[in-house]
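Quiz preparation item.
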């Protein structure tokens, strides 16, 4: 399986940290033998480039070596470090510089133990990949943000074995979670510092059961549950607002004091939570179908051919 470490190595090659104007070469060969430091004001030997000139080649938008405007802060940081202090990027030094790692839509299937080399990592974004399982043993303990949206995660047991203790945001939207077996992993025992939780567009169905687990999270302020079957229940939003008094934002909509007052007491009436929901779909107009009135009615007893048309409509939820 393609791992996060493999994707990161490809990313480094794409940045060209060993190529001009980065790294060590004829453009700063005196640095190679330790005869010159990275101080900008230091005299530059003939035939070499100054650190200022090399940085200008990276920063000037008209330079052929400039990064595109949409590049990440990590891209710029590593490229500039490769100019000023290329020795820091040798061996394991590069892993000490990375605090935020984003690997999106790179076909990653495995969160491997190579991630433990990132001893300062605080933010890990692995959205839009093919990850189905995440082992907490392979996650740096320093993580505060873990984003796994648009993957194939269907079980949280391995992730919750020893999760990062300081995690503040967990993004699991657009995955394959289905309750009630997964809800037991969403408690304070696993996520004592969680502030934001995205569970949108999964297959969670047990609203009271999920709320009973989420109510143990003392710092939860932002919650996304839209796109789950449980969000179709008539009292969905009111029940959540009244059950989780510390919640500030639900499904990207701010909870105002007036709304909380309006739903006050609903949490103590679980009998209002129904296990099914009714959806009414109305079809206003269909285009591209033959008009039945346009066919000429056959006379009684006529031997002419009879043409029939049949149609069906498919709904996907």
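Solution:
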């Amino acid at each position: 399986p393609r791992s996060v470490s493999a994707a990161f190595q490809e990313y480094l090659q794409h940045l060209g940290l060993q190529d001009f104007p980065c790294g060590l070469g004829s453009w700063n060969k005196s640095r190679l033998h330790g005869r010159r430091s990275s101080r900008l004001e230091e005299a530059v030997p003939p035939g070499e480039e100054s650190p200022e000139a090399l940085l200008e080649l990276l920063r000037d938008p008209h330079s052929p070596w400039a990064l595109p405007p949409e590049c990440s802060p990590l891209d710029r940081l590593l490229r500039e470090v490769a100019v000023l202090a290329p020795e820091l990027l040798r061996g394991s030094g590069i892993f000490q510089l990375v605090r935020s790692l984003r690997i999106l839509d790179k076909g990653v299937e495995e969160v491997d133990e190579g991630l433990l080399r990132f001893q300062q990592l605080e933010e890990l974004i692995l959205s839009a990949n093919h990850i189905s399982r995440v082992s907490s043993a392979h996650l740096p303990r320093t993580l505060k943000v873990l984003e796994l949206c648009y993957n194939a995660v269907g079980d949280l047991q391995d992730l919750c074995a020893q999760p990062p203790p300081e995690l503040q945001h967990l993004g699991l939207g657009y995955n394959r979670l289905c309750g009630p077996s997964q809800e037991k992993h969403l408690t304070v025992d696993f996520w004592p510092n969680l502030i934001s939780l995205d569970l949108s567009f999964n297959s969670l169905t047990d609203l009271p059961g999920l709320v009973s687990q989420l109510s143990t999270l003392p710092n939860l302020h932002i919650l996304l549950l839209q796109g789950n079957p449980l969000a179709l229940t008539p009292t969905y939003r009111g029940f959540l607002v009244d059950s989780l008094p510390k919640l500030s934002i639900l499904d990207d909509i701010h909870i105002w004091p007036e709304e909380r007052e309006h739903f006050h007491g609903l949490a103590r009436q679980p009998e209002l939570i129904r296990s099914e929901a009714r959806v009414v779909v109305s079809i206003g107009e269909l285009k591209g179908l033959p008009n039945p009135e346009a066919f000429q009615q056959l006379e009684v007893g006529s031997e002419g051919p009879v043409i029939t048309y049949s149609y069906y409509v498919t709904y996907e939820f």
